Amino acid sequence: MSQAHLLPTSLFLTEQVRAAELSAVKSGCVSLYQLVEKAGAAAFELIKERLADTKEVVVLAGHGNNGADAYVTASLLLEAGFDVTLQASTPSNPSDELTSAIRQFLESGGEVVEFCHSQILEAGVIIDGLLGTGISGELSAELSRVIDAANKSSAWVLSLDVPSGLNPDTGSYATIAIEADVTLTFGALKQGLLTGKARHNCGEILIAELGLTGYLPKPSATRIVSSQYIKAFSPRKRDAHKGNCGKVSVIGGDYGMAGAVRLAAEGCLRSGAGLVTVISRPEHQLIVSATRPELMFWGCELVDMEVYLKLGWATALVIGPGLGTDDWGYNLLKAVDLSDKPCVIDADGLNLLKEMPMRQKYWILTPHPGEAARLLNISIEEVEQDRFKAIRLLHQEYGGVIVLKGAGTLIFDGNQCVVAPVGNPGLASGGCGDVLAGVIGGLVAQGYSSMEAACLAVVIHGDAADLAARAGERGMLASDLMPYIRQLVNEI
Known about the structure:
Number of helices: 18
Helix content: 40-55%
Largest sheet: 11 strands, mixed
Shape: elongated
Number of strands: 18
Distance between the termini: 28 Å
């Protein structure tokens, strides 16, 4: 069983894992029930390891093979001397695997009792084997009440395969799902466990591969972490100068929003860009230059030839932070569209893009769920119900590389879908997205491809947030990320 930091990078859909199970069985190397036994044994070993001083365990078992996993786990716990209470309702049409698992549990001296909410509320340890990947449609009222009781308890909760109620392909749920302390997933890492609501519900994720690795198809997505970028930056040549380290023009900052463009511009510098020019309202020069004199500034009231020269001068462009949605911002976005430079479009640049739909291959769009919803003309809830579907629709409509921000950021270039389970809730603060846009632009200016820059920037941004959060997530500011961004681009 792998530890959390050794999780595989390949992610799969539920149907892919089921197909791998059937292929393994068809090969004659294993039976379905033996896979259930392997899953139960892995859960048992984990419980022994984590809960050496605990003897009382409440097991919640469902009607499918996830329930079978729970019964096998309960049998092993009984045999090891644990005091096990297994709660379940009577299955109407049990599979052969579930029937065998129930028989094994009863032969081990176990007893099946009905769901008891008061006992769940008072439990110290809960093993969740209610649904796993078998969720379809709305939960029954009974299951919803059981899950609610488990979530309200103070118990340590282990979910087998998937927190019950959670969709393992999307990371979302309709009404309620188990909030686990640890999720022990089986066979392969499911893509939905790393994004959306799953980031809260799964807790620590571990994997028991059950011998299925050789039967898995091409993954549906991949996971990225900082360890994959250990050699992302090579040492600079000793004769390097600012002119060959990348030049970025950052456009934004309408009246009252100078801070956004200022943060994005410093993000460019801190990621290693050699020269950065801010194009903003003339009134904002003091705010930008006084607080970061290394930034150049061009005051813009109208889009004139000087603005086009600033766009042509740059290696890469960043537009959107604080841009506003009035004519001033609209005209600047139109000017950027006439350029052939790689461009990061963020914030109000995305809101304007909805009004002037275009499709380009050279830009990087960085929407949060609200901006994604506006770009797709759907609700935020629809975006969050299936973030993988949303990012594919965004690419289909707008092209380029899409960075769908949020808990478990997704990155998609039309071919490869990447999940980045990085960062922490401290990033839920104004300006953090502007910093990310700047880091992406700075990396593009230094020669990284759009996809490389997006992936690397998301990891740096998330890891910087984790370093900044050592002083606490609450009250963390976007500007708190800056020294750690500098540290990380030199470490990796």
